[in-house]
Write a structure and sequence with these properties.
Length: about 550
Amino acid sequence: MSDNFNRRGQRNENSGGRNSRRNAQGRERNRKSQGRRDFSASVPSARRRVADPDRLVAFEVMQAVDNQDSYANLVLPQTIRKHRLDRRDAAFATELAYGTLRERGTYDAILSRCLDRPLEKTDPKILNALRLGAHQILGMRVPNHAALNQTVGLARGVIGAGPSTMVNAVLRRVSEKSREEWMDELTADLTDDIKRMSIEESHPVWIVRAFRQALAAHGRVPTEIQDLLAADNESPSVHLVALPGIGDLGEALDNDAVPGQLVEGSAVYSHGDLGRLESVRSGRVRAQDVGSQLVARALAGVGIEGSDQAWLDLCAGPGGKAALMGALAVERNAELVANESAKHRADLVSHALEPLPKSAFTVMTGDGRKIRENIMDADLPENIGLAVEAFGEDGDVFDRVMVDAPCSGLGALRRRPEARWRKKPGDVADLLPLQLELTQAAISVTRPGGVVAYVTCSPHPAETQNILLDVLDGGEVELLDTAAAVRSVALPGVLEGDADPGTAVPGVEPAEGQEAATTVQLWPHVHGTDAMFMALLRKK
């Protein structure tokens, strides 16, 4: 065996000759170098075997979403706490995880051009590492060399040395083009605008098509679709509401929250953990999308004749609208029944209502479609109990009823970054019978002259206008000027002109005393809210 190799066939770094001189020169250069050594930006260091905690958090969230059907907004805070990230690293991990999940469709289209195998035949762990790397390169302000180095380190630490080599090679190909150049390449041969926008804005084709139809159905211009999709990809602001008569926004405003621009008693908070605010911990101030605040206030504010003591939230979980409605009810000496079909969600409703006087509300657990039967056996607040006794078997007890019906959730995709990839077109059709039956049940326990609010967090025409028309066909209710009711509780002038959310329903006559028969559809790209739909119905 040559003297230049040891007994195991390994190179002897101390042997003579050219290799010996080269090694000696290298050691001398290293001794003369000052400060910390930087490894080449073009070749990620093989010594990085421990993943950065913030990137590891994002990776674990991606894996939990894929393997356990977890919700990112629930698993992310737990994972951040497990790894004890500080505020800065937690913010990075949040953007990395949420941004990658939202834009998975776009990144998968790019990665399919850079891999030598189909995506479905790529190890899921490797694919998630590649997605995270692609988002850092194309969607964040992370220098390419850092994105490559850190993602390869992540892959080496959690998957293995072999796969990390593949991750390195693929991400180098990704980094050779800008996002704009990738979009040009991916869409160059597409003549279908729906497919083009699906790639550019990372939404499934069926959702892009449904959104464009929804814009037209609700009186918007279909060409707004690109703005709507782009707004769906933005991280939503955190909106706060102070429960009227119970909480105030002083503490939040003192901690850099700013007053809301859409509705009274709201604020926008963007400075870290809400849990550090005592008013939030106590439940007197709540995180709630301002669209949800608007619809709850509109139902509470619309004028009705006669009694106004008994309010119902038929599908109350997890309790945000119920808490706001309950606080507004207390100001009117009214009482609230909050019904929820699932026990664990009913417990969340009870927790949300804790800041209210206990005599002002009750929480029921039961199928909302059977509310008429269940209400007779419930342990109700005094005013509502008296109403039940007075009406007896008729059961039409309530003055104001909220039906925030289970829906596809297409209006809140920006809050649930993984949701767009889980939903299927059939999800909408499956929910339609339930939405109609819940609304009919609500009408059955509403007194003549009382008002029912039909609300969904979806703009899909099948869940909004079509359900409304089916309800109106029953002949028991009439459509109010919902847009006027919503404008009346918004800040002056903010829902005028192009921001007017109202839509007249063709063929539907205005109710008695109303100037128009309208519905309301809010939009993230117009109002900065979730895409909430509302129709106010008065029982004849």
